[in-house]
Write a sequence for this structure.
């Protein structure tokens, strides 16, 4: 009887232990990063048009029409911009600079970043635009998908035509279920021969470390928006899931590269209130930098913090006129090389900055820019570019 009771107690203990392990395993799954691999691959095929359109969840005629039109846009990009740009940047970009790239005010412009730096291994973009809810692709019906793909195609066409998009215009995309900045990044992967490996939504901890959103957090966001629909729900989800980590690789290769996008206002006062992005950037060490079509924010004192961070960490930078002005650099430590023509800048330039840029371009020999534009055009619709590097 005693032996029987002992066996029963051991059995009960074993059941309790297994139950605890099972509960622990469930909790671990609930708190594990939510993987969005299925969503990003659907976006890659349906919106970025890479691969066979065989997913029965999406109307074949709608996707085929979108992809046929997008193919024409990207063919024009390759012929008119990428063909002259690729050998130019091959010669311009030094071989020994960091393969970690920081691109402030960028949105989802992975397309240009990979054109300039095809060997990058880690890139961070930061802007006011939200990366978006990758799950939204599965909330689209046939009619809405056709409309929303056309809207995204319009802005991709503008990026190809003018080499930039305006934040004001891109705001319209946030009302759709599609993750707009992520789609732009995926189009960039496709055109340069890369493919996505995986996707996670992210935020930053107080110390600047990466926090991966979990199944539990996604469920909480969805519950928070119970009863909401249409553009209201889409805008809210796109903002809640604004930052992401996209892992990708060159087709045929095994090396995985990392692209992180953060929605963040880079003004001094915002960074003072919430310095997490600066702490994250500090972990990158020395970087290669890039910016274009950035409303000349780096010219202004209200963005001095991010400007000084760039000066402290960058080993080489390419930009249009929205990069760092010569008057903000120590001439004994830095030099700038100019390409193309600068006359009168557009979008929020200062008189002092315009004067400094004209003097910089006038002081150097004329260097040709082989492609039509890099970022903003001049008011004369001429293109230009500058390199900032340590002496």
């Amino acid at each position: 009887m005693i032996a029987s009771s002992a066996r029963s107690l051991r059995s009960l203990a074993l059941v309790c232990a297994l139950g605890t392990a099972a509960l622990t395993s469930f909790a671990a799954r609930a708190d594990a990063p939510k993987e969005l691999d299925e969503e990003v691959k659907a976006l890659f095929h349906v919106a970025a048009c890479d691969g066979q359109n065989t997913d029965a969840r999406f109307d074949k005629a709608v996707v085929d029409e979108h992809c046929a039109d997008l193919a024409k846009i990207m063919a024009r990009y390759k012929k008119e911009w990428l063909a002259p740009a690729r050998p130019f940047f091959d010669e311009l970009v030094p071989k020994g600079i960091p393969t970690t790239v920081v691109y402030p005010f960028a949105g989802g412009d992975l397309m240009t970043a990979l054109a300039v730096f095809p060997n990058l291994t880690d890139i961070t973009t930061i802007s006011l635009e939200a990366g978006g809810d990758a799950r939204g692709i599965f909330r689209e019906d046939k009619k809405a998908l056709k409309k929303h793909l056309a809207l995204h195609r319009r802005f991709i066409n503008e990026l190809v035509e003018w080499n930039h998009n305006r934040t004001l215009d891109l705001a319209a995309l946030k009302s759709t279920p599609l993750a707009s900045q992520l789609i732009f990044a995926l189009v960039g992967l496709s055109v340069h021969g890369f493919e996505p490996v995986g996707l996670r939504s992210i935020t930053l901890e107080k110390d600047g470390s990466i926090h991966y959103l979990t199944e539990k957090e996604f469920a909480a966001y969805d519950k928070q928006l119970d009863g909401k629909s249409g553009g209201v729900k889409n805008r809210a989800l796109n903002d809640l899931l604004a930052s992401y980590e996209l892992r990708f690789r060159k087709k045929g290769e095994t090396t995985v590269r990392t692209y992180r996008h953060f929605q963040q206002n880079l003004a001094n006062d915002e960074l003072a209130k919430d310095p997490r992005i600066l702490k994250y950037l500090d972990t990158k060490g020395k970087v290669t930098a890039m910016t274009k079509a950035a409303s000349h924010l780096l010219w202004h004192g209200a963005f001095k913090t991010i400007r000084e961070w760039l000066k402290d960490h960058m080993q080489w930078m390419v930009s249009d006129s929205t990069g760092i002005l010569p008057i903000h650099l120590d001439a004994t430590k830095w030099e700038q090389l100019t390409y193309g023509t600068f006359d009168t800048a557009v979008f929020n330039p200062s008189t002092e900055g315009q004067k400094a840029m004209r003097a910089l371009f006038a002081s150097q020999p004329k260097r040709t820019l082989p492609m039509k534009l890099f970022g903003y055009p001049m008011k004369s619709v001429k293109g230009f570019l500058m390199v900032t590097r340590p002496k």
Q: What stands out?
A: The chain is about 45% helix and 15% strand. Confidence is low (pLDDT under 50) at residues 1-15, 22-28.
